[in-house]
Amino acid sequence: MQNLHSRQVNDRMNAILGLKNLGKKEVIPSVISALNDPETRVRQVANFALEGVTHHQVAENPSQEAPERLASAWHAWWVEHAGSFSATPPKPCHDW
User: Fold this and answer.
1) What's the 3-state SS for the chain?
2) Over the range 7-41, which residues count as b (16 or more CB within 10 Å of their CB) and which as e?
3) Which are the contacts of 49, defined by CB distance < 8 A and separation ≥ 6?
4) N or C, which end of the chain has less CB nearby within 10 Å?
5) How far is CA 94 from CA 14, 23, 33, 91, in A?
6) Cα distance between residue 70 and residue 60, in whole Å
7) pLDDT tens across 62-87, in order?
């Protein structure tokens, strides 16, 4: 969690991916807050992570959306679904 605030862009992106891999409801607010990161790549990873955890899309083409609008859409989605949302655990990796 502390790497979400690292000065290193890669640390922040890896922290978000780690939260995504947990696949838990509790990570969603932290990942939503990463949508306000000044770095485009971090925001893109945050949106990817949210889509992965929630199995939901708030924008058809997220890279075309203004960052504030995307963050606002995810926040509104979370406000509406937080009480009833149940995360499904990530599928095990069988690639090796």
Assistant:
1) CHHHHCCCHHHHHHHHHHHHHHCCHHHHHHHHHHCCCCCHHHHHHHHHHHHHHHCCCCCCCHHHCCHHHHHHHHHHHHHHHCCCCCCCCCCCCCCC
2) eeeeebbebbeebbeeeeeebbeebbebbebeeee
3) 16, 17, 19, 20, 31
4) C
5) 21, 17, 31, 9
6) 11
7) 888 899 999 999 999 999 999 998 88
Has residue 93 got a pLDDT over 90?
Answer: no
Q: What is the pTM of this model?
A: 0.88
Rounded distance, CA 22 to CA 70, Å? 23
Q: Report the chain's mean pLDDT, rounded to a whole number.
A: 91
Name the percent of the chain lying above pLDDT 70: 92
60 vs 3, residue with greater confidence: 3
